[in-house]
Fold these 2 entries.
Entry 1:
Amino acid sequence: MSDDRVGTEFGPYRIQALIGRGGMGAVYRAYDTVRDREVALKLLGGSTADDGTFAERFRRECQLVARLGEPHIIPIHDFGEIDGTLYLDMRLVDGENLRQRLRSSGPLPAEDAVAVVGQIGDALDAAHAAGLVHRDVKPENILVTPTGFAYLVDFGIAHDGADSGLTKAGTAIGSTAYLAPEHFDNAPVAPSSDVYALSAVLFELLTGRPPFGGDTVSSIIKAAVLQPAPAPSSINPAVPTALDAVLERGLAKDPVQRYASAGEFAAAARGALTGEAATSFIAHPAPTAHVTPGGGTKHYSGPQQYSGPQQYSGPQYAGAQYAGTQQAQIPPYSGPAGYGAPPPPQRGNGAQYALGGVIVVLIAALIGLGVYYFGFRDSGGETSAAGPSTTTLTSTIQPSPSTPATPPPGSSPCGAGVGVGSGVTSCAFAESVRAAYLAAGPAGQARTISAHSPVTGVTYTMSCTPEAGIIICRGGNNAVVHIY
């Protein structure tokens, strides 16, 4: 692709190459001369800066996204307007989008597809908790690095809950193949719409085609509104049939019948692969996101002052509430798939409770005898006359021998039990990440932590997951830390 902006300067940016172009503008590889780094620079085309409503929404949403700090949302460095053009300065990611992956390799293995969708589900839950609906989830807007780490990009056309969902010209925003049926009725956008779009993305990753196809926009819309989605296993026999029911619910016409969050959808897909007993999710009314920006709206009248890299406060977890709608915690249900709650649990037998009470009494009696024997008898077996005494019982547990894990190929060791996996990661920061991870809980578990870099003086969010017998933490500015 060629572009007349390549080789020119845009404010402090030196534009090097065109990465991609969409309906809202173009994305370039650019060099930031102020901060001495390469970035992904999105320039919005047309008269968007002259449209006061659009420009104000664009700036407001950039502020919200920049504050999210979820590892799977592409970090925003800066945004604003220069010479009448709105721009967005983002981290430059070494990877490809899912559309490129599908074109080069075809459908993904089910495990890989579900792993990508799980990461994007975390990103969407964080956005929904902050009041943002992405509204353009599609393969082109999901980037995957060579290590399999996924990023959700392009919140530039996202809508908040108060927006109608249509432009002034009456054209639905986003890509038709991934729009939920309610969009075609100009219904208010909601997190359930993103759940539908994420389901459509998983369908295409598994089969190589969207759930509803057609030669024209009208034929795609009719199919999405009137026809049930085909079972993905009927298109690609390599797809586990257990995923058919998961995608049927994720692509439900009625928003109320879909999963209550992107995270629940991703969890159901993982459960279908592993064969674990699925959790029956109660269908909730589709929540509506409301944006409440803190501190009012900032107006921009000219070129921006560059505020430096954003500091992120850690991932937002959206699994609690959407606009006052609380998700119910319900027990596992192994019955037939369907919408609605599982049957109520059966009450226990009264004889079981009586037996349990007898056991508790016997245990208490044994404990009492032990206390008497060890606390009131001396070594000769006679009762001590010196009054009550305190006896401390101790035992020594010998550690079991184990073979320490070894770092993976390409890892540069920094010391005992820690190494780095990228050229931009310092050993000082790796030691800080290891200390923060071990302080946050038991080793071997996946969790997100915040670690301070002695080199930059900045605290970064790192997402740590067990892989190949070690813990790999990713985040910050493309940092990779190996804990073993």
Entry 2:
Amino acid sequence: MGWIGDSVESIRSLQIRHLLTQIISLGMIVTSALIIWKGLMCITGSESPVVVVLSGSMEPGFKRGDILFLHMNKDPIRAGEIVVFHVDGREIPIVHRVIKVHERQDTGEVDILTKGDNNFGDDRLLYAHGQLWLQQHHIMGRAVGFLPYVGWVTIIMTEKPIIKYLLIGALGLLVITSKD
């Protein structure tokens, strides 16, 4: 009876060790993703180095579901550039083209006006109440490249949260049940 009890306890110990190993592996994957994201933030100088186009306002150049890669540098922003900006009171950033840049002589600050390529008018209706221009601090980055359609994964998971939870659950189950 002692030998069987020791074997059962040994098997349980191995199972617990295996489960802990899988949990640590999952934690390392998540940590690696965060490190890569923070590294991209440092390299690109942008608080969000990758964004997904969520609307058709930039068609035909960028379509809903395209992923944009952003970079931010000290060069002055010019008309014609595609920028991603945030507006006070809005959670989701906006991807639009700069149509007008005005440098104030007294302060040297730059006022920026944007517009979606597929929109009729400029973005002043999208800006915060009473705001007519964007300033440099609103700009999150400049588009330097894109991948078409890859962002649909994000859009689907945002619009259908059940798919996100099923995917996360499946990935977690896969990590926990995989054999080394």
